[in-house]
Amino acid sequence: MTTDASATAARRPGEQVLTALGLGAPAPDPADTSTRSFPGGGRWRTEIPSCEGPEALGVVLKEASRLDVPIHRISQGSGVWMLTDAEITEMVDATNERDIELCLFTGPRGTWDIGGSTRTDSRGGGLRARGHDAVAGCVEDAVRATELGVKCLLVADEGVLWTLHRARVAGLIPADTTLKVSALIGPVNPAAYAVYERLGADSVNVPSDLTLDHLTEIRRVSGAPMDMYIEAPDDLGGYVRMYEVAELIRRGAPLYLKFGLSKAPALYPYGHHLREVTLSTARERVRRGRLALDLLARHGADGDMAPLGSRLPGELNRFDIQS
Q1: CA 263 → CA 56, 140, 184, 197, 285, distances in Å?
Q2: What residues have CB less than 8 Å from 149, skipping those under 6 apart?
């Protein structure tokens, strides 16, 4: 795969003024540039997260049209089990109409389980599926969602990921189902990232506090698409990295730019008691996306977006499945 020229030629924030004052930074090292891209072309895609139902989805789509924000993927965090069949079908139809990938979370997860260890300082078992029954619930969600037309599933457990990958290989869920690893368990080193790819991940949400060098290290060992919050929710650190978007793409492509929102109340698991904050934050996530895209354009780095409607990750490395 070739490196996009615009990825290395883009202007960095404040570059002209700082150079004139003798404070210019060294030129980017071409060796740091990711040589990878999405199949069909493009080095970055967009994602609007925490879209918790049809009403929030409608707000996102309306605001995206108003602000001219291109969207490749919309994801939800509460879980398949928190939506009715009618709600899922409505979301599937609305995203299919606009050729946007819809990604729903499989549940249950440890934070809503009876395990007290998840509330300790060490977080214990964390977000993973505790025991056979939790894995079974995630599989049940996956089967139900894919039967209703959902093509992307969000997972927060290595065992669930491997199980669902085996299920699609065996034809138990559709073969073109994509599996996305949650930021809640995102890997923080290249060896771990490569393991998630081999377990069946089609995109991996890394923590938003990884350094640019960390992204380069990951790209040297894995071509699996990377998801990254440009602005992270507070429970994931609250980081805002808008001025780094061009460099994040240069180092991390193929990359999903994920427009989260800091200083916002937690929404999971969603219910109508959270309706107003869910709709207002959905609208603001799209606006944050517009701000990030405007920065990319201002720095001459908004080229090479993947075509809208593209969703598959390309050929990836997998562990062998024993019969």
Answers
A1: 19, 34, 18, 32, 12
A2: 88, 89, 92, 93, 96
**Burial, 22: exposed, middle or buried (Cβ in 10 Å; 0-12, 13-18, 19+)?**
exposed
Our measurement of the distance from residue 272's CA atom to the centroid of its chain's CA atoms, rounded to an integer in Å, reads 25
State both tokens at 96.
């299919």
> pTM, whole model, 2 decimals?
0.88
Lowest mean pLDDT among 73-82, 264-273, 300-309: 264-273
User: How far is residue 307's CA from residue 158's CA, in Å, rounded to a whole number?
Assistant: 30
CA dihedral 199, 202, 208, 210 (to 10 degrees): 60
Confirm if 308 and 11 have CB atoms less than 8 A apart.
Answer: no
The pLDDT tens digits for 5-64 are 444 467 888 888 888 878 778 888 889 999 999 998 999 999 999 999 999 999 999 999
233 within 8 A of 262, measured Cβ to Cβ: yes
Please give the pLDDT value at position 262.
Answer: 87
Shortest CA distance to 241 belongs to which of 192, 288, 175?
288
- Which residues lie below 8 Å from residue 303, measured CB to CB, with a gap of 6+? 4, 6
Q: Which of 155-169, 207-221, 257-271 has the lowest mean pLDDT?
A: 257-271
